[in-house]
Design goal:
With about 425 residues, the protein is an alpha+beta fold. It has two domains: about 5-20 and about 195-410, no CATH class; about 55-115, no CATH class. Helix content is about 25%, strand content about 35%. The strands form five sheets. The protein has a seven-stranded antiparallel β-sheet with strand order 14-15-16-17-18-19-20, with helices on one face. Helix 1 packs across helix 2. The longest helix has 30 residues, at about 25-50. It is elongated, with a radius of gyration of 26 Å. It starts with a helix and ends with a helix.
């Protein structure tokens, strides 16, 4: 795709947010991305080990007196070898299996070997299925989704399993940062039929971190159940993120980070958080590097829901440093248990000449349409030229994965 030098220049000017969030927010966004990756890696490590080793669990061994012993020591040794398991998790496991361990210590090992199926179900029900996937059926795969960092040293990640159809929610893994490493402190297993209730909370406000405020709220049906779902954009309110600006632009810059959250309204159980982005995709109000950049989201951008499609729009307008105005609309649809990016529309125009061009990408069909020759000020001089081609990008995106770099990746701007 051909892009004029001035357009590229304007992109570079406003890109300080879309590429770096802002001087301080750049570090924040990068840190969020790094922490998200670290949380994902630690959470994934347990289920990688679990799947690769044929779903191991505590074994019953014979002690020196001919009684049964629940071999927790060997199991805990294997967990510690992962390097991602907190002693808090192991302490919790000791408490969880204590009743089973105490009971089995009274059973003769010979009797255990000769026992009928489910004989010890009352005390050791977890013997009879794969505990960490709460099933007797082996799934095809698992996936880590919905990564959240809750404060400085705590995080969560959801595990989904797939049995051949859509991904199914399984558990939420809780993690804690210990000596700069994310370690698993808890894995909350649930019955599959209760999965939809796990993340349900009565009010949307119950999901908003302390000290954050809602700045946008949109309603519309996203999952075709006839009930309006909700999308909000929230913003931190820390006073230290308001900076004095001695140059061009606003006197005070609001550099507080923003997040977008998508909720499904449940018929009987409040709201379920199905997606959120915490890695800087939503620009802050101001940018420390491009102080003349207007708020990309709140000035002429915004969010909207129509026919099951969530559109997130940004406008990059600078009061100094560039004549170009750029608009970017990202279109998301709920499919395969996630908010998938299915379309991207981009337009730009020159405020002096009126020259305008646009690009539209269908990520589902991999088709791209590029139009040049428009003039916003004089229709008589407009000579639109439309070019269709195959979009060269190979990457797919979900709302949670979109970052400031996504803009440049979609438009193949190096």
């Amino acid at each position: 795709m051909k892009i004029s030098f001035l357009t590229c220049l304007s992109l570079i000017v406003f890109a300080s947010y879309t590429g770096r969030a802002n001087g301080q927010s750049a570090i924040t966004a990068s840190a969020h991305a790094d922490e998200t990756a670290a949380i994902t890696k630690s959470a994934k490590s347990f289920y990688d080990w679990y799947f690769e080793n044929d779903y191991p669990y505590y074994e019953v061994i014979r002690d020196k007196n001919g009684k049964c012993e629940l071999d927790t020591a060997s199991f805990f040794s294997k967990l510690r070898a992962l390097g991602t398991i907190s002693e808090l998790f192991i302490d919790g496991e000791k408490k969880r299996v204590k009743d089973c361990a105490d009971f089995m210590s009274t059973v003769d090992y010979a009797a255990y070997e000769a026992a009928d199926a489910y004989e010890y179900d009352a005390h050791c029900s977890h013997f009879y299925y794969m505990y960490w996937i709460k099933s007797q059926e082996t799934p095809n795969s698992f996936a880590i989704k919905s990564i959240q960092q809750n404060g400085q040293g705590e995080g969560t990640a959801d595990v989904y399993v797939n049995y051949g159809g859509a991904d199914e929610y399984l558990v939420t893994i809780s993690l804690q940062k210990e000596q700069n490493y994310w370690k698993i402190t808890d894995i909350k297993t649930i019955e599959k039929e209760s999965a939809a209730l796990v993340k349900g909370r009565p009010l949307i406000e119950d999901f908003i971190p302390q000290g954050w405020k809602t700045i946008l709220h949109e309603r519309g049906d996203l999952n075709k159940d006839g009930i309006d779902d909700h999308v909000i954009v929230i913003e931190d309110t820390k006073s230290e993120n308001f900076k004095t600006n001695d140059g061009l632009g606003a006197d005070t810059l609001n550099l507080n980070p923003r997040m977008i959250m998508v909720f499904f309204k449940e018929k009987d159980n409040g709201y379920t958080l199905v997606a959120q982005n915490t890695i800087g995709f939503i620009p802050s109000e101001n940018d420390e590097e491009s102080t003349c950049l207007s708020d990309p989201l709140m000035t002429e951008g915004g969010i909207g829901i129509q026919k099951g499609i969530l559109t997130i729009g940004f406008q990059y307008w600078l009061s100094c440093g560039s004549w170009y105005v750029n608009n970017a609309d990202y279109k998301f649809r709920y499919q395969n248990q996630e908010m998938a990016l299915i379309g991207f529309d981009h337009s730009e125009f020159h405020r002096a000449s009126g020259e305008q061009s646009s690009t539209s990408i269908n990520l589902s069909t991999k088709q791209m349409e590029y139009i040049t020759g428009y003039n916003m000020f004089d229709d008589s001089t407009s000579k639109p030229k439309k070019t269709k081609s195959k979009w060269k990008g190979e990457k797919s995106y979900t709302l949670e994965q979109c970052s400031p770099d996504t803009y440049f990746e979609l438009l193949d701007i190096k």
